[in-house]
Amino acid sequence: MKYQAVIFDCDGVLVDSETLGNRVLAEMITEAGFPLSPEDAVQQFKGGKLADCLAVVEAQMGQKLPADFATQVRAQMAEVFQTELQPILGVREALEAIPLQKCVASNGPEEKMALTLKITDLARFFDGRIYSAYTVGVWKPEPDLYLYAASQMGVPPEDCVVIEDSHLGVQAAVAAGIPVLGYADHSSPAELEALGARTFRSMHELPALLGFSSPLSRN
């Protein structure tokens, strides 16, 4: 199939922020009195809205976190990202090899996406087409964000393709009627496929999956 546009999730697809962000979250929740490992944080909260993640923690703790806890978490994440954040391996080369309209659509705030894409030098590939669930007011796994992204690019949903790595994101794309490729380097391919994704394990594979030759294949 010939696609007209590619919609990328951000965390875990473009930037390697899932591990870093959930490490910060786990450390701060542990300091608040509820022991949580980074691995468990990734397992429970990958791709989720921060407020929903904290609500789950509060329910498990049986008490409220400080009112400004989410703000503290975001500030600490931003500090860690400035020094440690890297792009997903091979994604820059993949973006260069895909001559289609591209945008980013994430459950995260637009400011966070702008920061992480700037740090990793990926913002230049998207010409400001960065769409947040906070703008739409509806979060994945609902389809609204992906439908909004497609409409903003002027492309019918069925002529787009979504690149995702989380259960919530794959569910959102499927619900929107958009084909979805599941990046499964740190996810279970079987689980993503069961939700409706076609999976791949390396960003070096992505151009060929979309019908374009990769930089590696031209060398």
UniProtKB/TrEMBL annotation:
UniProt keyword annotations, A-Z: Hydrolase, Magnesium, Metal-binding
CDD domains the UniProt entry points to: HAD_BPGM_like
Keyword Transcription part of the UniProt annotation: no
Gene Ontology terms for molecular function: hydrolase activity; metal ion binding
EC numbers on record: 3.1.3.-
Cofactor: Mg(2+)
Keyword rRNA processing attributed: no
Family: Belongs to the HAD-like hydrolase superfamily. CbbY/CbbZ/Gph/YieH family.
UniProt protein name: 6-phosphogluconate phosphatase
Organism for this UniProt entry: Gimesia panareensis
Gene: yieH
